[in-house]
Every structure is written in structure tokens, then in C-alpha cells.
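Onboarding guide, step 5: your first structure request.
Type a short instruction followed by the sequence, for example:

Predict the 3D structure of this protein.
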Amino acid sequence: MNKVVILGSAHGNNVAGKCSPDKRFREYQFSREVIGILKPRLEAAGYTVFVDMPEDVVPTPQVNELAKRCRFVNGICAKHGTQNCVYVSIHVNAAGSGGKWLDARGFAVYVARSCSATSKKLAKTFCDLAVSRNLHGNRSI
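The system replies with C-alpha cells like these:
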């Protein structure tokens, strides 16, 4: 069975906020651009790749968005086996106030409290790779 990567896009252009203080950087757009780069690279490496919500508009309120994502991911995992699937959601956090950037820096990797040891190991690998590339997180796993 092929290994499956499910890429999660960030919110949508219809979700308030989720942008830089000057509104030029939009999280939904950046997320989809990153996925556009990752997806063909992962496929070329032999992975089967799905994108949870490639559309620019997502269901609102957020509980509907999350429910749709969960149904999608759970359906893929049921078909391919959870042991063969990984879900990676691409988001960008920012810190700004009054139209100005603040000086927050770093990265974060989140996993569910009830996740498997394998998920925790993968999250640690992401952190280790980021640090090895001189990215320094103010949060960890």
C-alpha cells in the first residue's frame, strides 16, 4: 500500500483576519502556494497526495470548516489505512497590532494530545530539521 500524505490548507479568503497587519500577506494564499510546491515533489517521491480544502472559500463558521476537514481526512484514512497516512496542515502565525508588525519569531509543530508515538516522532523530526536549517522556534512540539 502506498504511503499517503494529506496536506491541509489554511482557512480561506472568507475567514476574517488571517493576514498581515498591512493585509498584503494572506495566510490562505500562502498555504495554497506552499501546497502547490509540496504536492508535486511528494508525488515525484512516490507518495499519494491529497489536499483537504484546495478552494479559496471554506465553510463558515469554523466548526463547519473543521468538520468538513475531519470527514475528508477520516475518509482517506479509512480507505488507505491510518498507519499509511499522515496529515500535515500548513499554517502561518503572525503578530501584529494597529497595522504594524510585532517582533515575534519562530515556528511551531502541533500534534493531538492523544496522538501516537509515531506522530510525536514525526513532529520532533520536523522540529529537528527546522533547527538544523537555522530556524529557531519559540514553541516546540
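Each response can be followed by summary notes, for example: The chain has a mean pLDDT of 88.
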